Amino acid sequence: MAKINSFIATYTDTLQELDIPVGEGLPPKTVIRRFLRIFQKIEDSRIQAMTDYPLEEILLIAFLSVLGNASTWADMERFGKAKQRWLRKFLLLKNGIPSHDTFRRVFSLIDTKQLQKATVTFLMDNLYAIKKALGIKDDGYRQICVDGKEQKGTGRNYNSDSKIRNLQTLHIYDASNELCLYSEAISEKTNEIPVAQKALESMDLKECIVTFDALHTQKDTIAIIRERKGEYVGGLKGNQSGLLEEAVSYFNEKELLDYYKEKGDFYETMEKAHGKLERRTYYLVKPTKRKIIKEWSGLKTFICCIKAIKDKYGNAKEEIRYYLSSMDDVELCAQAIRGHWSVENKLHWHLDYSLNKDDNTTMDKTAFNNYSLINKIVLSLCKLAKPVTGSPSIRTLRKEFGWGFEESLSLLLSSFDEEQILNALEAVK
């Protein structure tokens, strides 16, 4: 049976199996130069004769400060001043450390697409280098999740007649590599649909499974995924009432569920979480109405997921959800449905809890989205460093960098450097 890749899990297991020793890391200058090269690719739209701080220096200080547990513009300024003597080893800092207002203003002027392209390309290139060095192959499907997130604290409620809503951000998340490929701040929830379609149009989705909630279960979205050679699993709710009713009709009798179970179009999982026992039962059926099959590109199956929860006191409840898919492997569909939750617990949760993203209450959409991109590159680096450093959590890892930043920085970035990994492999042979 085909499966969905999970690089971080494979990477962690490989490091433990090989027992690669932790070295001293790359020289600090090598590390700083690497990141300066990334940020030098970003076009500076400011009038150069009127600028006091080079763009790459501002971005580097911001990145290092977030790595060291900063979460606001004021934190960036304080970090820079606290580490100014050390930073002068690598940066000119002709006019010292920028103020918090300068950080905010410059982040509002940066082209988000350029910053996103530079950081994602850097991370993808390094993931490829790690896989090559450790001999990790991408066997199976890659899962891409489409989901939006509300940025708490970015809105304002001045009075009953004047309210500014929180910013919304659309994420396209590579769940297999635990990397955010695309993010765009939007002002209205419904705007997610065309933004997601435009982003998916630019992606190569061959050997990918795209998962999304009911909001994105749109004929045009699904057609784009199929045109880009991808598979899909999408949620069904009231916004697609006719399609939902059609799906429900295949699963509304116990005899039908028993029939699917006997036929083999059935998969079940059991797990304990937060003191509760959760059983998920998946049933799969192929639709028969030609009109529906023709309208929804690549549609092969409807899936019913029954989630039964029982707590330690014996209290029980049941949730039923429905999906449509271009795949007919019930276990693979179940993996994709469950895997879609990773955008919440491996991206959104970490951004909120491990990186304190909600502490930044910037109302400017561009500034916040660029700040968010810095958070995401830090999160990706910490995930790669975590199995090497042995830290129990991303939050703890960032605190440790804040406490011993100069010593920790080189070790962090060495944990995904191809040459360092190859040297470590030679040492254990």
What does this structure look like?
There is one protein chain. The two termini are 34 Å apart. Helix content is 48%, strand content 19%. It has helices spanning 7-18, 28-39, 55-67, 73-82, 84-87, 100-107, 112-134, 192-201, 219-227, 241-249, 254-263, 290-295, 330-339, 342-354, 365-389, 394-403, 405-414, 418-428; strands at residues 142-151, 156-159, 162-164, 167-174, 179-186, 208-212, 231-236, 266-273, 276-285, 301-311, 316-325. It has a nine-stranded mixed sheet, sandwiched between helices. The protein has a two-stranded antiparallel sheet with strand order 2-3. The chain has 429 residues and is α+β, with helices and mostly antiparallel strands.
Brief summary of the model shown:
The chain has helices spanning 7-18, 28-39, 55-67, 73-82, 84-87, 100-107, 112-134, 192-201, 219-227, 241-249, 254-263, 290-295, 330-339, 342-354, 365-389, 394-403, 405-414, 418-428; strands at residues 142-151, 156-159, 162-164, 167-174, 179-186, 208-212, 231-236, 266-273, 276-285, 301-311, 316-325. With 429 residues, it is of the alpha+beta class.
